[in-house]
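notes to self, project folder thing:

trying the whole complex as one job this time. last attempt i did each chain seperately and stitching them together was a nightmare. two parts in total, labels are on each line so i dont mix them up again. if this works i'll redo the older ones the same way
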Amino acid sequence: MNSADRAVTKEVPAKGRIVTSRWKRQVLTYLMVMGPGLIVMVADNDAGAVSSYTLAGAQYGTRLLWILILLLPMTYFVQEMVARLGIATGQGHAAMIYKRFGRWWGVFSLADLQLVNFLTLVTEFAAISIALSSMGVSPYLAVPVAAAGLIVIVVTGSYLCWERMVIGLCCLDVVWFALAFACKPSTAGVLHDSIVPGLPCGLNSALVFLIIAIVGTTIAPWQLFFQQSCVADKRLRFADLKWARLDTFTGATFTILVACCMMMVGDLAFRHHIPFTNDSNAAQIANSLGPIAGRFVRNGVLVLMVNCAVLGTTAVSLSSAWAYGEVKGWPHSLRKKVTDAPGFYAVYVLCVAAAAGIVLVLNDRQLQAIILGVQVLAGVMLPSAVIFLQLLLNDRELLGDEFVNKPWNNVVNWAITVVLFGLSLILAAQVLVPKLFPS
Amino acid sequence: MTTMARQVCEYYVIHPLDDALEEKRTGEGLSRMQMTPSVRLSLLALRGYLILMTGLVFYRVLDLCGALAHHAVH
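result (full assembly):
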């Protein structure tokens, strides 16, 4: 039995917290375990997600809410496998791929992850630059300050310090509920569109791309690597699995609800017939909403866009640093000081600094190409990443009967993999043959 | 370690970072995962697909950036 989960009979270590009832023990244990699941899910609502969801609302109203609701179980089941694998092995995802599938797949997974992550980071800093420019702050000030802040929150040498700061940023996302409320969506319409699937205006090129972008931004490859490494770094115990699952489910539910709020904010532009294309971003939508909904909504969207980009940046950069450290065999932990894990922190700082620097020199056309590249590469990578996850979770030799997938897990997760692969192929086909669907 | 006596039926909760290390299933000593020929073949096909798609995406992004001047997309 785990020491966190047993009744006191004789002596208590000085660091243990004493509670007098069973439910208090459960609440306290959950609060102590909470973190990796919540952070990975909320960070998933990054700058790209804000743009995708608000744009979906601005172009199609709340008609695509049902997709977000469907994504809740999908994202939970995928991330639950990651949490289980992290708790069982105490190691990150990159390390496990390297060990169980060999050098080629280890190096390829790492290289692909680093590439997609770096391009994603560029889009995060682009969002910070665009949002703060709309508020009158020069990108040459905003981007370096954001990058410096992102480095400072990680180099404290304390996992708990980083986790608490990031959970604080995650909590800011509750403001999306106030913004959605301020936009006065139709309750009946929201409920209807959440339950009844429908494709507004039929299937066309822009809609297909948007749907794939929504799916791709809700379940991203870096999330698999991030949560497993985070669980390992936090040293979650076998007995913590049920709490880690609850953490993941809570995070997934919160994130999907926030995503729905983003779509409802965009819906206000749709109801006022403000036209947007797939190239539009959340800052443009926020600026167009200013005269209609007031400064609270406009500035709220812009500030939260920066917050989402900051959360996304720290999570994506850490997933890169953890993965690189695992494969290279370097010390890789937020519990270590900079001097004790120089390679790990160097990768983090390099990712953040290089992405921030690139944003300041690229033009709009090049940034747009990178955003497209991120979406496509993530879409191509994700199904294969989930396949490896599935294979690892069926590795009885490694995990034993306790942690290996049950038959129903396999049915659900292979179904998810098939859906993701189908979307990936459509995305790939559409990029290669842009006129595949009617425009 | 500093300890203190407590009554029966009280519970204590320890943060994961303060608790004793568990022995994990690290896979040390295991060889590479055993796979059936069909799984191995599927992974080989996946490898080809990923290499091809990564190359195509790169080409497309460079094209959109205008790096391939002879064939820029407008």
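what i see at first glance: Chain B touches chain A through 47 residues (CB under 8 Å).
need to look closer tmrw
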